[in-house]
Amino acid sequence: MLRTAIRSHANLSLQTAQISKRFMSAPAPKNIDHIKRVGVIGSGQMGLGIAYVAANVSRLPVTLMDISKEQTDKGLKFMDRLLEKDVAKEKITAEHAKGTRELVTAANSLSALSDVDIVIEAASENLNVKSAIFRDLDAICKSDAILATNTSSISITKIAAATKKAEQVIGMHFMNPVPVMKLVEVIPGLATADNVLQDTLALAQTMGKTTTVAQDIPGFVANRLLMPYINEAVMLLEGGVASAKDIDTTMKLGTNMPMGPLTLADFIGLDTCLAIQKVLHENTGDSKYRPSVLLQKYVDAGWYGKKSGRGFYSYNK
Ligand code: CAA
């Protein structure tokens, strides 16, 4: 089924044709057997999810890199829990789960990524952090390795400028929780090569994901739409228009959202929401993207949402 997904030429051609003339003549997706090993930077909820789908669905060996053993151990423990749950639900066999686990190797240095064919970076949403990582990857990785970033809003072109091979750099924006959400938004930067775009789309499809292609604008498509929606909900709360619970219930039951906007903000992380909203505001200069004062206050207080135990709601840690 996954191989069939890679060969879904018509769908892919339609997507690429819609975004820009530059990709209108992009060839049908080619075989990606040359992608033999994946590197993932960051073993938090996004990085771990990406490593999980690369190993469990694409059946590719993965090097999962984070700065400390404590971090990678924590990530791998979570992966074990995901696998156990999938086995218990008979989604996969115990043998498949064992195979998945064996495909993932932990590492605590970027130099471990010297043999991978694609790196997917899922470090924190900060341009300086990402630029430093990409500068190092430029020196460490094979010259033809794809350098992908899971940034949710930062310019791919800016991140690529930290390297000497901007043509190899691309955005590969997964949604949280990665094992569940079906979308990967793919964002070529100004200089991204067409073969890098095609390989990235094909790889995401082997992970069982549907792909969309977006231009390199602040927030791309997903967060250009989602963040103003979340921000408006926070502004309603700030203005005392309704309680958090009633805002969420309105959207959950009134518009069939799986989560209300404030629950979703807590789930994404209020620090991440604020960082994305600042990118939208600063990079467009448009006041309509101004983050609400209340969101800034919550982040200042260390109320980051579910991960810190408190956001718009309280959580048992
Ligand atoms: N990691 C892995 N799997 C998870 C998970 C996690 N963190 N959280 C839930 N799941 C799995 C559950 O294990 C369960 O799997 P099974 O079907 O195999 O049992 C499945 O998701 C459904 O979970 P639940 O039954 O516990 O709960 P639910 O039905 O309420 O679904 C949800 C949970 C999938 C998170 C759902 O509430 C949802 O879709 N919420 C919206 C999520 C969303 O909008 N994500 C995008 C955020 S934006 C983003 O990521 C981009 C960005 O740049 C900010």
UniProtKB/TrEMBL annotation:
<feature type="binding site">
    <location>
        <position position="176"/>
    </location>
    <ligand>
        <name>NAD(+)</name>
    </ligand>
</feature>
<feature type="binding site">
    <location>
        <position position="130"/>
    </location>
    <ligand>
        <name>NAD(+)</name>
    </ligand>
</feature>
<dbReference type="GO" id="GO:0070403">
    <property type="term" value="F:NAD+ binding"/>
</dbReference>
<feature type="domain" description="3-hydroxyacyl-CoA dehydrogenase C-terminal">
    <location>
        <begin position="219"/>
        <end position="315"/>
    </location>
</feature>
<dbReference type="Pfam" id="PF02737">
    <property type="entry name" value="3HCDH_N"/>
</dbReference>
<comment type="pathway">
    <text>Lipid metabolism; fatty acid beta-oxidation.</text>
</comment>
<dbReference type="GO" id="GO:0016616">
    <property type="term" value="F:oxidoreductase activity, acting on the CH-OH group of donors, NAD or NADP as acceptor"/>
</dbReference>
<dbReference type="InterPro" id="IPR013328">
    <property type="entry name" value="6PGD_dom2"/>
</dbReference>
<dbReference type="InterPro" id="IPR036291">
    <property type="entry name" value="NAD(P)-bd_dom_sf"/>
</dbReference>
<dbReference type="GO" id="GO:0006631">
    <property type="term" value="P:fatty acid metabolic process"/>
</dbReference>
<feature type="binding site">
    <location>
        <position position="125"/>
    </location>
    <ligand>
        <name>NAD(+)</name>
    </ligand>
</feature>
<protein>
    <recommendedName>
        <fullName>3-hydroxybutyryl-CoA dehydrogenase</fullName>
    </recommendedName>
</protein>
<feature type="site" description="Important for catalytic activity">
    <location>
        <position position="173"/>
    </location>
</feature>
<feature type="binding site">
    <location>
        <begin position="42"/>
        <end position="47"/>
    </location>
    <ligand>
        <name>NAD(+)</name>
    </ligand>
</feature>
<comment type="similarity">
    <text>Belongs to the 3-hydroxyacyl-CoA dehydrogenase family.</text>
</comment>
<dbReference type="InterPro" id="IPR006108">
    <property type="entry name" value="3HC_DH_C"/>
</dbReference>
<feature type="domain" description="3-hydroxyacyl-CoA dehydrogenase NAD binding">
    <location>
        <begin position="38"/>
        <end position="216"/>
    </location>
</feature>
<dbReference type="InterPro" id="IPR006176">
    <property type="entry name" value="3-OHacyl-CoA_DH_NAD-bd"/>
</dbReference>
<dbReference type="InterPro" id="IPR006180">
    <property type="entry name" value="3-OHacyl-CoA_DH_CS"/>
</dbReference>
<dbReference type="InterPro" id="IPR022694">
    <property type="entry name" value="3-OHacyl-CoA_DH"/>
</dbReference>
<dbReference type="InterPro" id="IPR008927">
    <property type="entry name" value="6-PGluconate_DH-like_C_sf"/>
</dbReference>
<keyword id="KW-0520">NAD</keyword>
<keyword id="KW-0560">Oxidoreductase</keyword>
<feature type="binding site">
    <location>
        <position position="307"/>
    </location>
    <ligand>
        <name>NAD(+)</name>
    </ligand>
</feature>
<feature type="binding site">
    <location>
        <position position="66"/>
    </location>
    <ligand>
        <name>NAD(+)</name>
    </ligand>
</feature>
<dbReference type="Pfam" id="PF00725">
    <property type="entry name" value="3HCDH"/>
</dbReference>
<feature type="binding site">
    <location>
        <position position="152"/>
    </location>
    <ligand>
        <name>NAD(+)</name>
    </ligand>
</feature>
